[in-house]
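Researcher: Please translate sequence to structure tokens.
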Amino acid sequence: MLSFHSFPKDSELRAQWLLKIRRDGFTVTTRSRVCSRHFETGEIFVSSSGKRCLQPKAVPSLFHWNNFSKKTERPGVWERRPRPVDTVAMVTVDYNTEDENDVSDMPITGCTESAPASIPLIEDHDYAASPLIVVDRIKYETMSREIEELRRQLESYHLTQGFGLQRCATSPEDIRYYTRFPSYEHLMAFWNLIQEATSRMVRVTSGQKSLSTSTSTESPVNRPTKLLPIDELFLFLNYLATGCTQRELCHKFNIHRATVSRILVSWPNFLYTLLGSVSIWMAPGRVRANCPADFSGTYKNTQVILDCTEMRCQTPSSLLLQSEVFSTYKLHSTFKALIGMSHHGALTFVSALF
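Model: Translation complete:
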């Protein structure tokens, strides 16, 4: 009858066990066991509860390499060390790996007379081996279908959870609603113009912190953020197009509200600095060549259509500021601006706010 025994807690006795077992790279865990076949009969006794136990100072000593007997001495280092031979031997090894606590020499059979010396290898017991593997095919196919279905649901869940540009790329209506660009191609054409400059974008909060805590004259570059730069642009355009609150944006893009605030402050300054240096006025000859038919004749020399507009703002607490921003036309506080439009209605110029 076989029984399995855990390693002793005493460090010295455990070291003796490991020395006798002779397994390189072996680490003792709470689940490591040594079977009773490696102990002498007198070292095992049956307790009053019927449990097979070891004597307090028992050490495993019976192994395959000593033929499970203390009388057989272990071969010396010279006999155990492999040496090269002139003829290549055909070696057949047959073993299983059920018991990880048994160390022995594997039987090696060669087809030549000058076979190399035997090498101590691991041989495990075969009492737990089973020649048959029974598989319930119906259950296996059902579980395979469930796994595939769960995988598809997980992919769909990831797509629906993440709100970004890629989610709306295939829908022209969504692109126009969330960005006010005519199509995804127009948006990507604009992105290709500014993409290279985004690597040098200075976050407003980072810049202010750097100026207040450092005397360096170098501008701090942007640090890695949770959103990709193109998704940050999409968030900013979404904010301008839909007028949603920062709380809504932080839930949509699954980021902190402070991160949304930093994006909404940094991107207007970045785009103003970047695009403000670009000449927006076309040559008069090109304007006339592309002028719509409605402007031919009396208005053929039109270069730009100018108009003024007002945008509502919060009422300041100062009475002096209230008098400066109050609009008798809108009957509330506004900022005034001069805008310029091309012939087909696109805004090409916006002045500073007054």
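Researcher: Any highlights?
Model: The first strand starts at residue 4 and ends at 6.
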